[in-house]
Amino acid sequence: MMIHALSPNLERNKQLIQNLFGHSDDIQYEYFQINTVYAEPKLIMSVMVSGLADKDQIHPSVITPLLQHTFVLTTSMIDEAQNHIAIKNTTRFHSIEPCLSMLLQGGVALFFDGEEECLVIIAPALPERSIEEPGFEMSVRGSHEGFVESIGTNMALIRKRIKDPRLRFHPYEFGSITHTKLVIAYIEGLTAPEILHYVKQKLQEIQLDSITSSGEIEQIVEDNPLSIFATIGNTEKPDRAAALLTEGRIIIIVDGDPTTLYGPHLFVESFQGVEDYSSRPYYVTLLRILRFLSLPVSVLTPGLYISATNFHKEMIPTALIPSFQGFNEKAPFPVSFEIFIMLIGFELVREAGIRLPKTVGSAVSIVGALILGQVSVDAGLMTPPAIIVVATSIISGFLLTSIADVVSILRLIYLVSASIFGLFGVIMVTLVTFTHMVSLTSFGVSFMAPLAPLYFSDWKDTIIRMPIRFFSKRPHSIPVQQQTRIKELPKRKGHP
Fold first, then answer.
1. pLDDT value at position 489?
2. Cβ contacts of 363 within 8 Å, gap of 6 or more
3. CB neighbour class for 65 (10 Å; exposed up to 12, middle 13-18, buried from 19)
4. Which of 12, 38, 76, 276 sees the fewest Cβ atoms within 10 Å?
5. H/E element holding 30?
């Protein structure tokens, strides 16, 4: 990359900027005349990007003091200017390229007539969303703060909760076009060095010229990019991110995206709620059991229903056989096609409810439920057992919002296999799915731990949640340098 040195001529410097930026309308140039004691007045040219620099702060704190001051010129103009402006966050450059890079980060560049340096004042005015609770991780008890799009604010939200000086933020920048900032956070002396090295090596492999979101980073650095299971977790809550850091995890923060990534991520964490550790352990255990049960119910129900009606009628209770047979005889479509159409219809309604504005989305959900439910039965297009099966599957999936995409895909896979091979197809897909899940890793750590490999000591926080007093050690599923959580108490005199 060619480096262009600055010129003592203001117009020459302006030409350099226009050669790199072009005649873009958002690049603002202003000229000011300053007074000197023993010489003619000198010119200063300020350059800023409209909307990125805080103009209301620059004029009273920088421009006005320079206009009111009479320069003696015993030293360089830049040295004298730095002593009289109110903002002290300044940097000096001899070339145009780093100067323009600072402009794009909310800086203002001052070029002085006759000087081969420029002075950049950092005064960003980037629009920032207020801190509010994330829509998909709402909690009744606990913190209601959520990450925002500013990487600096997100780091401060984590630092506010972890006041340990060992907390580290390691910066990166990706994309020759977007220059997206990224930070990995970890606790030195706690996070396993092999995991940290693994993540840094993965990030160094990124060669794209454009990175705009954490989702792109996730797909690049994950261990198994072709798997339907996400082996990198994500969260928008600072309290959860802080808790993960204290377990030896690594947090990845991307500028411009409120969703932070973390790893290693375990499959069992998909069944853990946001406020599981703020609530009483007994009710949390009940909820986790329901979440674990909802996975097979949501995924297997349509496939098992098709297997029973098409291949293995002995699976149907004797009392229900006449009614099932009567409904199926009146059905205009095969059972497999009927279930498939209803699943696709429910997915369309759910997606419309999410993407449309809230006022319209709720109305679409109600109308869609009526059309797919009672109206379709009255019209003779669908059968009541099929609607009950699909509704049970969909409602059970609502408990698994973090893996909703995986549940939807698996549900259709089981549907197709059951339609072709019956119960044998369901069993084969189950075996293939389990084998695939056991083979997955997250930053080199087994995705299915503590179930496979088995860490029985970690079961106190999987399907059940024991009281906090039992969490004296960190999970063995995640490699850490410091396993115990309890600080050693000083020994009392007279005691061993």
1. 40
2. none
3. middle
4. 38
5. strand 27-36
